[in-house]
Amino acid sequence: MSNLVILPILLPLLTGIFLVFFNSKLAIVRMITKVMVIVNLIAVSAVAYEVVQNGTLVLKAGDWTVPYGIVLVADPLAMVLVVTANIVATACAFYAFHSLDEQRERFYFYPLFQLLIAGVSGAFLTGDLFNLFVFFEVLLIASYGLIVLGGTKEQFRESFKYIIVNLLSSILFVTTVSFIYAVAGTVNMAQLAERVGEVEQGGILTTIAILLFLVFATKGALFPLYFWLPKSYTVPPTVISALFGALLTKVGVYSILRVFSLIFVYELTFTHQLFIILAAFTLVFGVIGALSTNNIQLIVAYNIIPAVGYMILGIGVFSTTALAGSIYYLVHDMIIKAALFLLVGAMAAYSGTSDLRKMGGLIRHQPVLGWLFFIAALALAGLPPFSGFVGKLLILRGAFEEGHYVVAVIGLLTSLLILISIIKIFIKGFWGEDKLESVPSISIRKKVAPAAFLLFFTVLLGIGAEFFYPTVQTIGDQLIDPINYIDSVMKE
Amino acid sequence: MEIIMSVLAGLLFTAGVYMMLQKQILKIVIGTALLSHGAHLFIITMGKLNRGNPPILTEDVTKYADPLPQALILTSIVISFGVTSFLLVLAYRAYQTNGTDNMEKLRGNEHE
Q1: Partner-chain contact B35 A182, CB within 8 Å
Q2: Residue A50: which residues within 8 A CB-CB, separation 6 or more?
Q3: Nearest CB to A156: which of B68, B97, B112?
């Protein structure tokens, strides 16, 4: 039974390896990818259903007793995120068939794509800090391959910076793990949580906690460590930007959520207060960036940053409501960022430019794209019928309940600015006079379909909030009380 | 012994950070290599040095060196090895395509 836990990692990994051999036969590669993303999505959803119904599944690799071997822990939080990641991956795969040029597809796009998914799923599922580092590297190395794929001038320029920053934070991660091992004598998260609890987290452990936070904050693009993100996310082709925007930073956020709700929870007045302050800065600076530019892809890329700010705010407030809000927002944001990148990519492909000043009147040519984008913009800003509303409501309600008024007000105002920054694309790009010189002959229907698939989940998460909320509430309850996690891992 | 090793790792970190702040791409790559050496030295130091024999099961030996940090280092070494080789090829291609190895000149706002 517990062997099911490895499926979300094993399926994409094997598919990726398998695809390498059929590299030159593009039709076969596409077909295998098409079948396998769907099989994977179904398999992962089945495991997730099992976990949500019957509680956490723990896989002891090689049947070693717990602290000595590697454990994979599929608790409801991890499984919900794995399912979301696979929904995004499915949409991106179908978008890739119709948007990538053949040369890029031939040059191992699909194997790298599958390895990225394997790395992301592994990072969500692992119960061991060093193993988390290894899965981080799996997904990062796949992302290095994807970000330079095609080799244009801009890609080389920005990817070098991206790789250097990530390499530096990986080195810091290894160093921090070695400090943890010296202090606690273990790298298993559950046992670590136990031992940190026994000594009540002294000064040295808080220092290590902050080092670890710096590592994840770099991966998750938090103020002041977000500088590498916007440009490096806009240079690769759209489908790769969408994958990065939806998955990579969220793994950093998940790691912060896991580590600071499980292990380092005894110095809340210092660590979590710091998160709230940084969240406020992240919200403000990210949205300023989004307002500052006329490049539609850059606007979406900058909007990743305030979203991370909201989630960190929820973690910083650290009450059941706020944590549940963070989880809801995390799921919502993975889906909506992928959808927005895909829609913006379709816009740029149709009008032949990503400069907003050269666009206008697209609604006459592409009404479906226009209204889908409108829905996505409202969902991003957090208007009531869509999914962004529920998460933001819970986070901000948590902040008000715990007395963090200033940051909650900043959060509310930021929502308004996010709406302005994103609706600017709609107003300038879709309304106004027609600036297209001739009607392009390309069809973008097949590019819009995957985005519509993602937006369906946004609407579902918004309207069906009553249905999803109990699960998220349970996850929030479990997170606030680490005993649940420790018991389910450490028990025989 | 641990103190000397910590100081050495610290020096490696200092040199690595200095190299990473240089303008030439190749110097930055050397900086990352120095940094990963520093990190690996830290791992072996943090696992406590000088505890006993190499971790190979033999008769009449009761004290062994801690095997876990050694396994961690081995993993970390191959990962940084892979990334460094990728980085070197990338540096070469970036130099060919952009015509410069100066990071100052690799700025810019224009996209395709």
Answers
A1: no
A2: A4, A57
A3: B97
| Domains (range + CATH), chain B | 2-51+66-102 (1.10.287.3510)
| Model confidence at A322: pLDDT above 50 | yes
Q: Which residues pair with A188 in a beta bridge?
A: A128
> In chain B, which residues have their Cβ closer than 8 Å to the Cβ of A126?
none
Place of tokens 């891992």: A489
pLDDT attached to residue B112: 39
ipTM passes above 0.90: yes
pLDDT beyond 90 at B46: no
Decide if B111 touches A, using CB distance below 8 A.
Answer: yes
Residue B108's pLDDT band, with cuts at 50, 70 and 90, is low
Q: Residue for token digits 């819970």?
A: A394
Whether residue A148 is predicted with pLDDT greater than 60 in this model: the reply is yes
Measuring CA to CA, how many Å separate A153 from each of A78, A145, B92, B96, B98?
38, 15, 13, 10, 6
Q: Are A272 and A261 in contact (CB under 8 A)?
A: no
Residue spans per domain, chain A = 2-490
Mean of the per-residue pLDDT values for chain B?
Answer: 89
CB contact under 8 A, B75 and A134: yes
Contacts of A24 (CB under 8 A, 6+ apart): A106
Confidence of residue B110 (pLDDT cuts 50, 70, 90): low
CB-based contact, B97 to chain A, within 8 Å: yes
- Cα–Cα distance measured from residue A413 to residue A411, given in angstroms and rounded to the nearest whole number: 6
**d(C-alpha A370, C-alpha A390), whole Å:** 24
For chain A, state the CA radius of gyration. Answer: 22
Q: Hey, what's the torsion of the CAs at A475, A477, A483, A487, to 10 degrees?
A: -40
Paired tokens of A25: 């036969």
Residues in Cβ contact with A102 at an 8 Å cutoff, skipping those fewer than 6 apart: A26
